[in-house]
Amino acid sequence: MKNMKPMTRAFWLLLFGLLAGYGVGLGLDLLVGGRVNFTASIAGLFSLLIGVALFFLGLVGYRTIARAIVWQIAGTLGGALFVTAIRALMGLKAISPPFLFVEPAWVFGGLTGVICFLLGHGVVDDWIKMARGIEVPERRADAPGWQKYYSPSLDHKVIGVQYIITALILLVLGGSFALIFRTELASSGLQFLTTNFKLFNQNGLQFYNTLMSLHGMIMIVSILLGIAGLMNYLVPLLIGAHDMAFPRLNAFSFWIAPPAAVLLLASLILGGFDTGWTGYPPLSAKAPIGMQMFFLGVFVAGWSSILGALNLIATVVRMRAKGMVAFRMPIFVWASIATSLIALTATQLIGLSFQLVMFQRLFGMGFFDPAKGGNPILFQHLFWFYSHPAVYVFILPGLGIVSELLPVFVRKPLFGYKWIAMSSLAIALVGFFVWAHHMFTSGMNEYLRVPFMYSTLLVAVPTGVKFFSWVATLWKGKITTPTPMLFVLGAIVVFLMGGLSGPPNATVSTDLHLHDTYWIVGHFHDTLFGGFVFPFFAALYYWFPKATGRRMNEKLGKLHFWLMTPSFLVLSLGMMRIGLLGMRRRIGDYDPLQGFDATHLVLTIAGFAIALSILIFIVNLVISLKRGEPAAGNLWNSRSPEWQAPSPLPAHNYDTPFEVVGEPYDYGLPGSKYVEFAKK
Amino acid sequence: MRHFIIVGILVIVAASLTYMGLDALNLMPVAASAQAGPIDWMWNWQVVAMSFLFALIVVPLLYSLAAFRRKKGDTADAEHIVGNTKLEIGWTIAPLFIVMVFAYMGAYSLAETRRVDPQAMIVNVNASQWAWSFEYPDYGFVSTELRLPKDKQVLLRMQSKDVIHSFWVPEFRVKQDIVPGRVTELRITPTLDGAYKVRCAEICGTSHAYMESPALVLSQGDFMAWATEQQGIAAAAQTPEGKGALLVKSSGCLGCHSIDGSKLVGPTWLGLFGSQVPLSDGTTVTADEAYLAESILNPSAKIVAGFETQAMPAFATLTEEEIANILAYLKTLK
């Protein structure tokens, strides 16, 4: 064992752990159920838990995160055992199939697991030292090479990369879930997720529901981490700060997200849940234990969002370079501010609404239980008060990327800079007054419907300003189309389709037909691809050279674009088409008489084509990291400060501070400059 | 100026072609209710707006890509145009005006779908995991199919006993959630005979996909004939078995339990009474009256092997007599 490479050893331990855990699980099943059942959920559960724990145990000492995950699993089991012991002492039901521990024990264990992850990882070490009166240095050096990406680094660029890589991992995971249920949907009837299918106490349809619901939330967390990564990496560079305002809080905001993702995934092995990502009670009050892991995971992930937003606002308010008045900030900084204002003030509501359902399940508090005087509609109000503004959290940074990159590749100033900046704030503001358009058919008070229709349609106005200004920026430019620009153009067209398919949902009468159909599914995939996925890839292709000193392969980049874009258009238009004709959302099977089989087959093929294009992207990323063409200078001929410095930038960024001496996007104005660096 | 004229013409052509293409696709299913009229009218105007705005953005974008490409070897920047305040005000005010008009049209069409006929026929809709039942109080019977007379408004008074469901017949367009603990209402005036389906539109658990019931629109005469026939069946069902058979329909039992031996979410009822039932803890139990009554009132007390994944809701509100009727009915399923 000693001579093996750590990775090889870890895989052997994984194998051993899976088998040993299965044995332990069978033993526990025998204890609880009184007989051996080889497909018992407990056996599968412990096989996975012990296997994963041993895998990471094999890597302890090599990867900081390995220790954290071992601690999380140990902390979860410890917390669960603690509650189980107390319940046993109190004479309450302490253990029960199918998951050995009862629900309160798992929930408490989930919470202690997260705390143990943070303790095991060491991201809170400095705070603990401070609390004990031990001095900690203001800055500390990072671990060498790749190690720093596993460790609690305080460098905003390292944290930005950590965010982005985690976002990509979750994107692939959420996408794989979609491929599984998309395959099931390829034709009507049940193919492999049948009633005889059994995994972690779920039959096929239940497992379909779990995957479909997790696809939604995993993608949402992936997007939140993706935009946090872009903002973390870029905003200090763009405003000339040496780091974020609170580096330790910054590291904490990131490191609370991985254990939250683990909790979300844990819902899959603890019986799943069948509510969709919205978790409406009373259904969510009756769902299996997995529901609680989902709620807890979202609750913890919310911390990441809130604290990250707080940090970003403080950074932009306090740490801008000399001369960078509000209307000379790069447009992406405006978008980041707008997004952070929403995230800081609205995220609490989704945490609260989920927490209320958790308490309803744990303590019998009937917040949403009509039998106890509760009101299920109240949940929907609380939930959408965050979850509608949240969609603007997802898209505003992406639209900021589009506005940021267009002038560079058109070689012309951003048309109507102030209007675009203000439109982001306007969307953020109006976004707070539109939530009930998700509830037109819910049975809420009838007189609320028309006012919410008016307020929702208002969102079209600032969004329209962005589109018109982008087109005016393109007009009479000198346009080039390398990969980042292709993704920017793709973002405009796809987001336009998302925008245009929105007003019919905002209009009460047509929404009565469209609500909860595949039309809606097509609509929001358009907005999220146009508002996040396309701009995200544009940003990665554009700033990859800044982060690594090498550029990504253009041919593979273009292949990625030309494969993903048409496939996605087919996917979203096909979804809208069958949605109008009567295809409902969130169903694992559909009526063959409706004649959707052919369309669904095409949608499935399109889904796999998108997956292939993402695979090409990842191959490109890995290859370019080692063998990409070196690109140390101002590759895109941009005016922005980060491109005036060498790539990659060292810790604490610029050698000398810069001063803002001109407008950010004055391309075509001879002799003008945006920033001037102080002489050494 | 030349560019503006070309783009202007192209936008109009592209918008018209997009609209005609979308219109030819027949985007909506057939309209089978009076409420579909104002909704399809509103939808049509939205397709007009979508086609125009799509062309308004995409045509200049594609045109710019073709006409304003950087020439090979040209390294200079483009013309320094920073913006135009009048233009920005224009494309803020004009859309504002348009969306307000559309919101007004939306409110108008919504009001049209909600016209009340005081003579409307009442149908009480009971939704449960995962079945629909329809009670016709004027005629005194319960059916698992929704059958409606043509050209007569029906008022659906809808209730759910477990989770949120949503009543939707795509051909009728309108949709309404059904929330436990209260009654929600929906008015529909069928206008086209045919066989459609009520499809639950709000996710309600494992078998949500299969929560569908036939919805038939009949001529007035055919409806009356059917209603009279159902009335007769209900009146004839004075035996315990007959009452039990109606009760399992209206309680939604048949959403999960088949009576023909096929495996649904729950065990089949065919040949159940008196049989030996294997339980999930490895023991077996004889399906006698005590066991069956317990399984109705407290389903999780004994779980049948192979059916662990889906908990059945407890039917604690049934009276002793009703349970006796159901048991009598179960005995007939041999």
Radius of gyration of chain B: 29 Å
Kindly report how far apart the N and C termini of chain B lie.
Answer: 85 Å
Task: Count the beta strands of chain A.
Answer: 4
Could you tell me the mean pLDDT of chain A?
Answer: 92
Main sheet of chain B: which strands, in order across? 3-2-1-5-8
Q: Give average pLDDT of chain B, whole number.
A: 90
CATH superfamily of the largest domain in chain B: Cupredoxins -  blue copper proteins
List the uncertain runs of chain B. none
CATH H level of the largest domain in chain A: which superfamily? Answer: Cytochrome c oxidase-like, subunit I domain
- Beta strand % of chain A: under 5%
Over the alpha carbons, how many angstroms does the gyration radius of chain A reach? 25 Å
* Anisotropy-based shape of chain A: globular
Strand content of chain B: 15-25%
CATH top level of the largest domain in chain A is Mainly Alpha
SS element count, helices of chain A:
23
How many domains of chain B? The number is 3
Shape of chain B: elongated
How is the secondary structure organized here?
The complex is a heterodimer of chains A (680) and B (334).
Chain A: H1 6-33, H2 41-59, H3 64-90, H4 103-121, H5 125-131, H6 147-150, H7 156-185, H8 204-239, H9 247-255, H10 257-269, H11 283-286, H12 290-318, H13 331-363, H14 376-410, H15 417-430, H16 449-458, H17 460-474, H18 483-500, H19 503-506, H20 508-514, H21 518-548, E1 550-551, H22 554-581, H23 597-627, E2 629-630, E3 658-660, E4 675-677
Antiparallel strand pairs in A: 1-2, 3-4
Helix pairs in contact in A: 1-2, 2-3, 3-4, 4-12, 7-8, 7-9, 7-23, 8-10, 8-12, 8-14, 8-21, 9-12, 10-12, 12-13, 13-14, 13-15, 14-15, 14-17, 14-18, 14-21, 15-17, 18-21, 18-22, 21-22, 22-23
Chain B: H1 2-24, H2 36-67, H3 85-113, E1 121-128, E2 131-136, E3 141-143, E4 146-149, E5 154-160, E6 165-168, E7 175-178, E8 184-188, E9 194-199, E10 212-218, H4 220-236, H5 240-250, E11 276-278, E12 284-286, H6 289-297, H7 320-332
Parallel strand pairs in B: 1-5, 4-10
Antiparallel strand pairs in B: 1-2, 2-3, 5-8, 6-7, 9-10, 11-12
